[in-house]
């Protein structure tokens, strides 16, 4: 996959051995200092936009691990597009109301400890810049103002598809150069994945429409930009073809962990039943919690189960509840004994936790 945009840019940087400097109007106006990989993500963007029209693209993606600070990179890109290109209107959308509410704190609540811009105020070229959270964009925007609309993609789709009084319309958006900020962007690819295939699944049809809505907004004005952010992107077939020229930066979980920024993540590869995987993950989580407690560390381990659809995610969640509700000493004992057979000669964390729990077997 060396023809992905990210890899092409890495080659250029290695040949030239020169990275663009991050402007002070970005670094001075963020609450947190940028980590090296976040700087590199922005340097890719700066380089891409400074080297000729043939490299400038209106659709780009930041594919970065969960917890790597994609939202801080998003805040930096807002400052960049405002200062460098004069964009005042930004449209943030995501699939979840919970993320919309969190992002309001990140970008709109200067008193929140989650606020990502400089809490003393955003200042560019000696002028204070205001960020206004809006439902509709003004016809005559004020100077020194960034207008940010935050919404779920399904709400946006419904309001544009079925226009109502005092609500935003496609006709309104024709006149407004927009920067679209798509968070958790892997949710907006159902139409690409299922192209040419019919579906009777209501949720799948809805998600296909989401992708078409984004495409339609992008087609309204040639100045529109689409910046996508996600930790989860499976580069296969049609998705690979769609994104190979968009992925401006990739920073996966393995690299995130190796550089010491992430909690260690244990990945369980097994062909066993999902219920067994879940039980192993729960036991491992409790083991980590107990070890942390012994060392006076208040730790809440995180368990992640990847699903390709919301319905399968809900099924996995219910299965996990069932595993806990139906857990018995005999089931736990059988899981431990089976683990010993597999990991007896291993030096992995699994061996350590099995040894620890094994000492408790006499209590069963």
What does this structure look like?
The chain has 15 helices and eight strands. The chain is of the alpha/beta class and 364 residues long. It has two domains: 5-258, Rossmann fold; 274-363, no CATH class. The model has no long low-confidence stretch (mean pLDDT 83).
Summarize, please.
The protein has 15 helices and eight strands. With 364 residues, the chain is of the alpha/beta class.
User: Main β-sheet, in a few words?
Assistant: 8 strands, mixed
Query: For the largest beta sheet, what order do the strands appear in spatially?
Result: 3-4-5-2-6-7-1-8
- Beta-strand fraction estimate: 5-15%
Nearest-integer average pLDDT = 83
Order of helices and strands: HHHEHEHEEEHHEHHEHEHHHHH
Low-confidence blocks of residues: none
Total count of helical runs of at least 4 residues: 15
CATH topology of the largest domain: Rossmann fold
| CATH level 4 superfamily of the largest domain | P-loop containing nucleotide triphosphate hydrolases
Total number of strands:
8
Shape: globular
- Number of domains as seen in the coordinates: 2
Category from helices, strands and their pairing: alpha/beta
Quick one: CATH class of the largest domain?
Alpha Beta
- Level-2 CATH architecture of the largest domain: 3-Layer(aba) Sandwich
Radius of gyration: 24 Å
